[in-house]
Design a protein that fits this description.
The chain is an all-alpha fold. About 80% of the residues lie in helices and about 0% in strands. Helix 1 packs antiparallel against helix 2, helix 1 runs parallel beside helix 3 and helix 3 runs antiparallel to helix 4. The longest helix has about 70 residues.
């Protein structure tokens, strides 16, 4: 009887071991695939955010030049605005609605300012966009301080 039971027990244990090994391997593969997918999505979002920030920076540079009294041709303004509006659409495609809305609000303010119309304070809209982008990328634990640190008196 033991000659029959022991080989059957060995086969059962071997089969169980194989099934457990396959299950654990599948879990590891699924976790690795999820990590790689999340990393690729984060990289895509980061690229979209950087493209938008680059276009916004060009408009900010034009605004700085205008504030210094420099004349900027309308064609240059239109070129920068076109690049900004195009870059704004990428976060709308790959980012969360809060980031897309913050990018839209910031773009509207920059557009109005460059076209010479009144606009809400671009600084606050830029900060709102940056905070939404930080949350999107998973690096926001608390908001960044935007004002210079208070200097202790007596020094």
């Amino acid at each position: 009887m033991s000659a029959t039971v022991l080989p059957l027990a060995g086969v059962a244990l071997g089969s169980a071991g194989t099934l457990v090994g396959q299950y654990l391997s599948t879990r590891v593969d699924a976790r690795r695939a999820r990590f790689e997918r999340d990393s690729a999505e984060r990289a895509e979002r980061k690229e979209a955010l950087m493209e938008f920030l680059s276009a916004a920076q060009q408009v900010e540079l034009c605004l700085d030049r205008l504030s210094l009294g420099e004349h900027i041709e309308d064609s240059e303004k239109w070129q920068h605005l076109h690049a900004l509006w195009l870059a704004k659409k990428v976060p709308e495609l790959v980012c969360t609605p809060s980031v897309a809305q913050a990018a839209h609000d910031y773009t509207m303010a920059l557009h109005a300012l460059l076209r010479g119309a009144g606009a809400p304070a671009k600084r606050e809209l830029r900060f709102a966009f940056m905070e939404a982008a930080r949350v999107e990328l998973g690096v926001a634990s608390e908001p960044l301080r935007r004002d210079p640190p208070a200097v202790e008196s007596g020094r």
